[in-house]
Amino acid sequence: MRAFREAVEARDLDAVEALLAPDVVFTSPVVFKPYSGKAITAAILRGVLRVFEDFRYDRELAGADGRDHALVFTTRVGDREINGCDFIHVNEDGLIDEFMVMVRPLSGAQALAEAMGAQFDLITEEAEARSA
User: Fold this and answer.
1) Helices then strands (H, E): number in the chain?
2) What are phi and psi of 22, to 5 degrees?
3) Which of 61, 98, 118, 124 is an S-S bond match for 70, by CB 3.0 to 4.6 Å?
4) How far apart are the C-alpha atoms of 59 and 124, rounded to whole Å?
5) What is the pTM for the complete model shown?
6) Which helix (DSSP H) or strand (DSSP E) does residue 4 occupy?
7) Is the dihedral of CA 105, 100, 129, 93 positive or negative?
8) Per the omega criterion (within 30 degrees of 0), is the bond before 22 cis?
């Protein structure tokens, strides 16, 4: 998970995208239905990094088999501080095939939902461009 963490911390979104499996499933903390596919997941992560301020990973946890990871983070959206966790599973090729995000507190999740909602037209355009 070091490569993913370093790519996110460096805001190197091309490197992040290269670590995603074609069939990755992204589960948002603020949307009920998961998103499937590399193009939409990469576009969402680009949007997230546009709205997150002062983002940092604070801790990393790994499962015994090396395929499950939890990356605990702190960030801000506007004036709301958010604590969260990226739960990541990698497939047999070492690519991320499951990516679930959880955040707290509720006011932070609401701020994130609002900020991401404002990004969604651009996210959709980016996903369509990358999958064409």
Assistant:
1) 4, 6
2) -55, -30
3) 61
4) 31
5) 0.93
6) helix 2-9
7) positive
8) no
